UniProtKB/TrEMBL annotation:
Keywords: Endoplasmic reticulum, Heme, Iron, Membrane, Metal-binding, Microsome, Monooxygenase, Oxidoreductase. GO terms for cellular component: endoplasmic reticulum membrane. This is Cytochrome P450. One of its GO terms (molecular function) is monooxygenase activity. It is a peripheral membrane protein. Pfam families: p450.
Length: 485
């Protein structure tokens, strides 16, 4: 009996201590609207169900927040998030809160301290080293790779002529993997002709498991997750992806040690540039950066290309405008796009930007305050998560007008964009911790889309049903049909 009393007493003391230590969080929570909040369980019920239901719940909750002042709170378990939809607040957070929030710890198991998830102090040092590697001049050396792999993609897609709808993402992601492997590691993998690779299967498995953990509060504690079969499955597949990258690094370092440096002649891949940098990265750091580049740079770019094809397939007038622009640039030539060609694709670039607005493939950005920050309607203390929702902001009628859900590439005419708030449109995030590979992505997307649209006319239906699995996917796939130009 005494033991039970002591246990209850200790529990009570701990609870009082816990509440006192988190007093600023509870005061902030009480100052914000109780939108969708239930006693005890908080907002967990909004994140129950499959990835389509979770996304729909997030959209519904966001509409309630927008109509109630544009800022609210979300409690997931014991973690408090501030959810701002006002571009001014979003800008303050992305400029001042460089620390990724606690949900990114699930990615750290896989990507370690790669640039995408690294702690701020390490990120600042490594970003300075990697910025010159992602300089426009270096990225433009890869334009030939984009063109070569885009040509292979067009040939591979020909097998779908006259066969009705097919999921084009499977073709695009294989093409992007070949591009990313060659530019990041110097490896010609030929995934386009051998798409069912163990690496690709392992990567997709890990992404699905991590996505599940992020949105299911009861799977987040390691102690509970480790009791499930998902823990072993995740570990095995992470090990497989790491093994692949480690082997490439060992081979590249062997050449480096033999010759004293990597070749200075011709195009060099990103791994060679990392080895030649002033910072001497460990093998583990090299793997973390290369894995982050290949994983973050592949599906995001492939998804935008696939959504752009679906949108153009459902908007024939805009597709004709793109084709006319390409016809003016290339005439009847079948050559691959050059740097000058890509610079002339002004309308296609607007199509890509509008695609990223309507189908923001990274729908949520998580940050954590490291110090007190004043927003328009509240002051957020240190240690609070901030959930930025680009997918919601990009479709806000308050920001984009009553036709916010309509496809209109001319929203991105220079004179229109010049008057827009800088955080009304953030597909690559914003601030110093934005996407380092955005120039790479834009050039690759232009090149691949140009090759496809010069060769095929696209037809598709409207894509309304979406789901969230870290990234934004259509429930039924990226279905299009093609016919020869």
């Amino acid at each position: 009996m005494l033991v039970i009393v002591l246990f209850l007493l200790l529990l009570s003391v701990y609870y009082i201590y816990f509440r006192r230590m988190r007093k600023p969080l509870y005061e902030l929570s009480e100052s914000l609207p109780n939108i969708g909040y239930l006693p005890i369980i908080g907002h967990i019920h909004w994140f129950v169900g499959g990835p389509e239901k979770v996304l729909n719940n997030i959209r519904q909750l966001s509409r309630l927040i927008e109509s109630s002042g544009g800022i609210s709170k979300v409690w997931i378990g014991s973690v408090l998030y501030v959810v701002p939809l006002n571009p001014d607040d979003v800008q303050k957070i992305l400029e001042n809160c460089l620390h990724k929030d606690s949900s990114y710890r699930f990615l750290k198991v896989w990507l370690g301290n790669g640039l995408f998830v690294a702690p701020v102090d390490q990120w600042k040092v490594h970003r300075k080293v990697l910025l010159p590697i992602f300089h426009n001049r270096i990225i433009e050396d890869y334009i030939d790779v984009f063109g070569e792999q885009g040509s292979v993609l067009v040939e591979r897609m020909e097998e779908q002529l006259g066969k009705g709808d097919f999921d084009v993402f499977k073709y695009i992601t294989s093409c992007m993997l070949d591009i990313v492997f060659e530019t990041a590691m110097g490896e010609k993998m030929d995934v386009q002709h051998n798409p069912d690779t163990p690496y690709l299967r392992a990567r997709n498995t890990v992404i699905s498991i991590i996505s599940m953990r992020i949105f299911k509060a009861w799977m987040q504690p390691d102690a509970l997750f480790n009791l499930t079969p998902y823990s072993k499955l995740q570990g095995e597949n992470i090990a497989l992806t790491h093994k692949f990258t480690d082997e490439v690094i060992r081979k590249k370092k062997k050449l480096y040690e033999k010759h004293g440096q990597t070749s200075k002649e011709g195009r060099r891949d990103l791994l060679e540039l990392l080895l030649d940098s002033d910072m001497k990265f460990t093998d583990e750091e090299l793997r973390e950066h290369i894995d982050s580049i290949t994983i973050a740079g592949n599906d995001t770019t492939a998804l935008v290309i696939s959504y752009a094809l679906m949108l153009l397939g459902n908007h024939q007038q805009e597709q004709d405008k793109v084709y006319l622009e390409l016809k003016n640039i290339f005439g009847d030539s079948k050559r691959s796009p050059t740097k000058n060609d890509l610079n002339e694709m002004k309308y296609l670039e607007r199509v890509i930007k509008e695609t990223m607005r309507l189908y923001t493939v990274v729908p949520i950005i998580g940050r954590e305050t490291q110090k007190e920050i004043k927003l328009t309607k509240c002051t957020v203390p240190a240690g609070v998560g901030c959930a930025i929702l680009p997918f919601v902001i990009h479709r806000s009628k308050q920001i984009w007008g009553p036709d916010a859900n309509e496809f209109n590439p001319d929203r991105f005419l220079p004179e229109v964009s010049a008057t827009r708030h800088p955080c009304a449109y953030i597909p690559f995030s914003y601030g110093t911790r934005n996407c380092i590979g955005r120039h790479f992505g834009m050039l690759a997307m232009k090149s691949i889309l140009a090759n496809i649209l010069r060769s095929y006319r696209i037809t598709s239906c409207k894509c309304d049903r979406l789901k969230i699995e870290i990234l934004l996917f259509p429930v039924s796939g990226h279905l299009i049909s093609i016919e020869k130009r």
